[in-house]
Amino acid sequence: MMAGAGLVLALGATLVQAQQAQWEAQVVRARAALQKGDYAKAEEELAAAVTTAEGQAAPDDRLVRTLMFQESVFVMQKKFAEAAAPARRILEICEKAPGPDSLPVAGALNDLASV
Length: 115
Fold this sequence. Notes:
By secondary structure, this protein is mostly helical. It has a single domain (13-114), classed as Tetratricopeptide repeat domain (Serine Threonine Protein Phosphatase 5, Tetratricopeptide repeat). The chain is 82% helix and 0% strand. It contains 5 helices and no strands.
């Protein structure tokens, strides 16, 4: 039984590492595309990175960071209607984690109002 539990833990750690590597690669490709002015490719990579972050086994701040990056790419292009969707998701996440009266919620509300 102990060997089985060790295997499960090892597989779980491997999955987390694979998700982290996949997310990092997507974000790197999005940054590279953005530097080249290829907004469509940056948007595509960020959409994939959001999906990867949503499916992560161990929750962390990757989803919020990716949504913030996605929002900023839309704002750079003056696509304010599209920028509102990630801004709303950031607000929802912040309202749950730190709580509705927290500083992150205030920042998220400000960002949403800006777009």
